[in-house]
């Protein structure tokens, strides 16, 4: 797993927003919580769309975990890499065996112990479940950021935990003072 770096040149603890017209349908209106970014690569969890027909209770059933205290929350499309691998982006007060603190804004866990804890009512207070992730090799994301396609904004936990998935993209741009309807991916020539 990537190191979490609190360095202004890296995006750990921020959100990446897909620009309109990016050209990759997998990232249409994507909101990606950047959980690791350093010179070796980057890893983010998509939180801008949910997987239709799949809920937390379905995942718990697959692991034979009683639902207990867990609400039947949607599961997010975390990204196109390893789409069957699960992640939980959550508040910082809970820590499991593989939990990573992301820039003191949120945490990331990727083992079944976090699901058990949520079901038992002993897990993190706030959480979002996702399958898959977005990943970049060393320098790849930096190269993509040099071209139009991505816009990064501060890692606001209100956006993460209090905003419905289908509203995150618009709300994130609005919080940055940008109206995404006015954005274009290409520029003209004069």
From TrEMBL:
GO-annotated cellular components: cytosol
Signal sequence interval, chain numbering: none
Segments forming a coiled coil: none
Gene3D superfamilies for this protein: VC0467-like
A Pfam match: DUF179
Family statement drawn from the similarity comment of this UniProt entry: Belongs to the UPF0301 (AlgH) family.
Protein name, per record: UPF0301 protein GQR91_11725
């Amino acid at each position: 797993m990537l190191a979490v770096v609190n360095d202004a040149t890296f995006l750990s603890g921020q959100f990446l927003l897909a620009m309109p017209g990016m050209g990759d349908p997998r990232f249409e209106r994507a909101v990606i919580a950047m959980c690791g970014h350093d010179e070796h690569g980057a890893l983010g969890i998509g939180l801008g769309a949910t997987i239709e027909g799949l809920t937390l209770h379905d995942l718990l059933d697959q692991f034979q975990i009683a639902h207990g205290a867990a609400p039947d929350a949607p599961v997010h499309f975390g990204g196109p890499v390893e789409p069957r691998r699960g992640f939980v982006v959550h508040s910082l007060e809970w820590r499991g065996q593989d939990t990573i603190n992301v820039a003191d804004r949120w945490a990331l866990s990727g083992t079944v112990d976090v699901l058990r804890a949520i079901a038992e009512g002993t897990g993190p207070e706030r959480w979002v479940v996702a399958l898959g992730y977005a990943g970049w090799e060393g320098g790849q994301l930096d190269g993509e950021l040099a071209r139009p396609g991505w816009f990064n904004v501060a890692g606001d936990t209100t956006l993460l935990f209090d905003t419905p998935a289908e509203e995150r993209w618009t709300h994130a741009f609005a919080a940055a003072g940008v109206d995404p309807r006015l954005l274009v991916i290409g520029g003209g020539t004069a």
